[in-house]
Amino acid sequence: MIPAPFEYQRATSVDEAIRLLSDGGDDAKLLAGGHSLLPLMKLLLATPALLVDIGGISDLSYVRDSGERLAVGALTRHADLGRNDLCRSEAPLLAHVAGQIGDPQVRNRGTIGGSIAHGDPASDLPAACLALEASFVVAGPSGQRTIAATAFFRGFLETALAPDEVIVEILVPKVPGAGWSFQKFNRRAMDWAIVGVAAVTNGSTCIGLVNMGATPLRATGAEEALAGGASAAEAAGHAADGLDLPSDLNATPEYRRHLATVLVRRALEEAAQNRT
Ligand code: FAD
Fold first, then answer.
1. In CATH, what class is 179-273?
2. How many helices (H) and strands (E) does the chain have?
3. To test the ligand 1 pocket, which listed residue (50, 76, 106) has its Cβ within 8 A of the most ligand atoms?
4. What share of the chain in percent tops pLDDT 90?
């Protein structure tokens, strides 16, 4: 439970963080809230030689109205997002999901950028970002680029981020009048989801899944069934279509399939009532 030795540098700006990451090469890692990276380091599953601490870059913590989208700074802590009035009115799913993460300690340290960059299929915010059709602004040595959430999650804890890139902002389209729901199934209130479902309906429906594969995922089988005129219950029966379901101490693949069917139905039914 003791991490391997590492160097520590505190960056005071995004540019400085990018420079430190570039200099450190593949052995350098950003540190934001530390609530995903440090547990991995303690288990020696991550052994970065250099930690670049961006946790003090306060100008990356904000929620702003950006016209047709909501712009959320990457270092916005889950607790701040959960109680932010603008987020609660323009993207209530995102605020609600942030408020359900872990316990108060986790919510007061963890950041939305860290959650997305980590790409853990068991994390809640990536699934919400998929359902909201969000995109991520990332900065690197050659400038900024924007990556759609659907193109971001590549494999287990693998994303489209280059080693010297920093997520700086999350862009969430505003969808006035959209229906939304988040269903999180866990055994105890503060646990990670065994399965989670985020749904947004606005004419068409987007469904993000938690803990249903190697990456945060969209339930494309259920989405396609809905587009073809299926009812919520019928579409929910397709929630796990085409997915390679994980097995762990909490759930077999068969149990996950059952949970996803129930939770997608509940999410669709709630989203039909619950409007932004
Ligand atoms: P860090 O741990 O600092 O970093 C994580 C990874 O992202 C690292 O690889 C780091 O280099 C990289 N990174 C960080 N910021 C950036 C950035 N801006 N740009 C590029 N790369 C970056 N999460 C849930 O979703 N649901 C839960 O129920 C839940 N329960 C939890 C319970 C416990 C006890 C703990 C310890 C964590 C839990 N989490 C849960 C995870 C928590 O939300 C983490 O805080 C979050 O996933 C990571 O955010 P962080 O800021 O702590 O990132």
1. alpha beta
2. 12, 14
3. 106
4. 94
**CA distance linking residue 101 with residue 49, whole number of Å:** 29
Ligand 1 contacts CB of residue 184 (under 6 A): no
- To test the pocket of ligand 1, the residue of 1, 30, 60, 164 to mutate (highest count of ligand atoms within 8 Å of its CB) is 30
Query: What does the DSSP assignment read for 27-74?
Result: GEEEESS-TTHHHHHHTTS---SEEEE-TT-GGG--EEEETTEEEEET
Mean pLDDT taken over the chain: 96
State the distance from the centre of ligand 1 to the C-alpha of 52, rounded, in angstroms. Answer: 15
Summarize pLDDT for 201-221 with one digit per residue, the tens: 998 999 999 999 999 999 999
Tell which CATH classification among 3.20.20.140, 3.30.2310.20, 3.40.50.2000, 3.30.465.10 matches the domain 60-173.
3.30.465.10
**Ligand 1 binding pocket includes 102 (Cβ within 6 Å):** yes
Q: Where do we find the tokens 């350098």?
A: 28
The answer to whether the CB of 192 is under 6 A from ligand 1 is yes
Domain boundaries, the chain: 7-48, 60-173, 179-273
Q: Give the pLDDT band of residue 135 (cuts 50, 70, 90).
A: very high
Decide whether 60-173 matches 179-273 in CATH topology. Answer: no
Q: Which atom of ligand 1 is nearest to the CA of 38?
A: 2
